[in-house]
Amino acid sequence: MKFEDLLLEIGGFGRFQILILFILCLPRINLPMHFLLHNFLAATPSHRCAIPHQEAFVNLTVEEVLLISIPREPDGTFRSCEMFSQPQFQLLLNSSLQPENDSIIQPCQQGWVYDHSQFTSTISTQWDLVCEQRGLNQATATFFFIGVTMGAVIFGYLSDRFGRKAMLLLSLVCSVVFGMLSAASVSYSMLAITRTLTGVALSGVSLIVLPLGMEWVDIQHRTLTGILTSIFWSVGNMLLAMVAYLVRDWHWLLVAVTGPCLLSIVCLWWVPESARWLIANGKVKQAHRHLLRCARINGRKDFTVSPEEDMPLIMYAQRIVLQWEYKKPGGSYSYISLFRTPVLRKISLCSGAVWFGVAFSYYGMSMNLTGFGLNMYLSQFVFGIIEIPAKVIMYVLVNRVGRRQSQAWALILTGLCIGANVIIPKPFTSLRSVVAIMGKGFSEAAFTTVFLYTSELYPTVLRQNGMGYTSFVARLGGALAPLVFLLDEVWRSLPEVTYCGVAVCCGSVAFLLPETLNVRLPEGIEDIE
Q1: Is the pLDDT of residue 356 over 90?
Q2: How would residue 502 be classed by pLDDT, with cut points 50, 70 and 90?
Q3: Of the segments 129-143, 387-401, 406-420, 472-486, which one has the largest average pLDDT value?
Q4: Which reaction does it catalyse (predicted)?
């Protein structure tokens, strides 16, 4: 007797599962609002050196003061990070004669003046993270994803050890606490620390939401579940654009994107612990109670008529527990367990490579795609919309051609699109844009599939450990992706060639993984081996 047999008896996709999935989609919407927040949180508006007041400027207009105080770029715009050491009054007579002596040019001495027409305040304007300090501005995103990487390891283990729901609740509570502390930061150091801890907490949400929903759904609806939760990520992308457009101050923006976690915490009250996890850990009575609740809500009232009619469910659950206890080599599992047995070791190595390739190419394309010439809010909104068709198409493909083929070809085609733009001449801008957008779609399709595929590859007793390990590898790929742009000093097209090569190679590795279409979710390691 397998858990899927229990689901068939109590309803594998009824009102109970729909309610759970709807509630779990709430924190899923909130994730991209933090993961992509850096675009708005650390936005750097136009700026110039602050010019100290002098009596000689009394009769001059603002434009004339700028003209004699700040050097210009070749295109005629004022430089952002430099000023003249002394006013160049001769420029009032002929502004086209820019001084050629660099010795009279110096870095900004009195701070900066920012254009506040688009942003009331960002962390760049708050702590002058521009010019020589612009590296610290970009580092805030790095700190956040370092936290996400750490959280992938921590919560992957804890959710297998202490349960999905408890760790999801802990993640959400910590996300609220550290998110609000980030909004109240009084120094850059405080912001860096709290954003890192926010990344740790949100990593737990990212890891747990999909498997918790998946473990309550039957085989026929697993794909729909995975695609549905993924689409809500895109909805979060679009909502981020709207929230950022309405809230232009970084303190209140952090409050606005963190606040919805409170709603998720309240709604989580109605989400039960995974019955699969409860049975796998010997908590049969709790699992039995949740299974009966599922049957009742789904209209299978014949299971609750009398205690005697409940006995089959108890016997099924106890039989599964006895089987798992008999098969468990040590009684508990860790990340080392992912590599102890031959088949599981192969799955872990191959899935790790696929995740690395997916994240590496996804963030490489996202950082290299220049957009559509729209303002940043509209661009963010459009990028969210673009992801949805890719996910809907993958919903059809993974059910028709299978997970393995869909995963492999989505990632390979991502690489080929990146490589095609190396060959297409620069003047063909329209064609290059179309190919780049297609690549973005394939990349998003690969990311959508890998979440679903991985959750089906690992057994219940190791599923969160497996998701934690692969998420950790993915974050490494995401962290390395921007560094590859530095390779353009060696050869201008080397970054694109690198993204292409990694995507194609890692996509080919996906062919080595087993197919999971219409296959029961494995419960123990024996089911894998």
Answers
A1: yes
A2: very high
A3: 406-420
A4: GMP(in) = GMP(out); 3',5'-cyclic AMP(in) = 3',5'-cyclic AMP(out); 2'-deoxyguanosine(in) = 2'-deoxyguanosine(out); GDP(in) = GDP(out)
314 and 182 in a common domain:
yes
Same domain flag for 239 and 293: yes
pLDDT digits (tens, 9 = 90+) for 178-229: 999 999 999 999 999 999 999 999 988 888 888 888 788 887 787 788 778 8
Q: Is residue 208 part of a domain?
A: yes
Are the C-beta atoms of residues 379 and 366 closer than 8 Å to each other?
no
Across 321-325, 402-406, 524-528, least confident range = 321-325
Number of other CB atoms surrounding residue 285 within 10 Å: 11
- The secondary structure of residue 249, as a DSSP letter, is B
For residue 185, which phi and psi values (nearest 5 degrees)?
-60, 135
Q: What is the DSSP letter of 215?
A: T
Spatial CB neighbours of 36, under 8 Å, sequence gap ≥ 6: 237, 240, 380
Task: Say whether pLDDT at 159 is over 90.
Answer: no
- 520, part of any domain: yes
Domain-terminating residue out of 292, 327, 362: 327
Return the sign of the alpha-carbon dihedral for residues 457, 463, 468, 469.
negative
Report the chain's mean pLDDT, rounded to a whole number. Answer: 81
SS3 73: coil
pLDDT at 401: 86
- pLDDT for residue 367 is more than 70: no
Helix, strand and coil percent figures for the chain, each rounded to 5: 75, 5, 25
Backbone torsions φ then ψ of 290, nearest 5 degrees: -70, -35
Tell me which residue range forms the domain holding 82.
Answer: 47-114
Half-sphere exposure of 492 (CA within 13 A, CB side): 4
The pLDDT value recorded for residue 151 is 87
- 46, 69, 73, 130, 134 from 78: Cα distances, Å: 10, 10, 6, 15, 18
Query: Letter for the amino acid at 114?
Result: Y
* Inside any domain, residue 200: yes
CATH number of the domain that residue 403 is part of? 1.20.1250.20
CA distances from 453 to 219, 284, 377 (A): 13, 28, 32
DSSP secondary structure, 344-410, as one string? HHHHHHHHHHHHHHHHHHHHHHHHH---SS--HHHHHHHHHHHHHHHHHHHHHHHHHT-HHHHHHHH
Residues 284-304: pLDDT tens digits? 888 888 888 888 887 776 654
Contact 51, 83 (CB under 8 A): yes
Task: Please state the pTM of the whole predicted model.
Answer: 0.76
